[in-house]
Fold this protein.
Amino acid sequence: MTEVGVSLGPDALRAPAGPLPADPADDAGLSDDLAALKSEAERRLAEWHATGDSLVASSLYDGIAFYSTGPWRPPTATTPRSASYPAATTRICFSARLNIDTTRYFADREAALAAEAESIIVLANPVLPRSEGEIVIESADPATPPRIDFNYFADP
């Protein structure tokens, strides 16, 4: 998630949650490490604006598999449907965000979940959607985005 924050630019790294001062006017006194972090964040943000390609242009969940855990039932049934979201992750994501004791699953968790290590996690999410949304083309101009109404809460 740190890489996502850096890719979003310096404002995403500002206090209270990030390491940069809340007020950009205070950046003049940054340590060398924080100045380098800010510079990299500015570079990534500029690259995204120039090319449209960046980590933040990704959904972070680039592969999704929807599957049924049983025979189809009408929407009133409790038969779960599921979706899996494979996503690269780190030790911090496992332990701090997902609250998983990584010592139970990895012999050497520091090596297996290091920032430079290749890893993947499959998050299973039981779903049984009942609401339906819509996508409406607003214009014949292809530069005009469609109106997307997910309508998530239509069904109580």
Observations:
- The first strand starts at residue 65 and ends at 68.
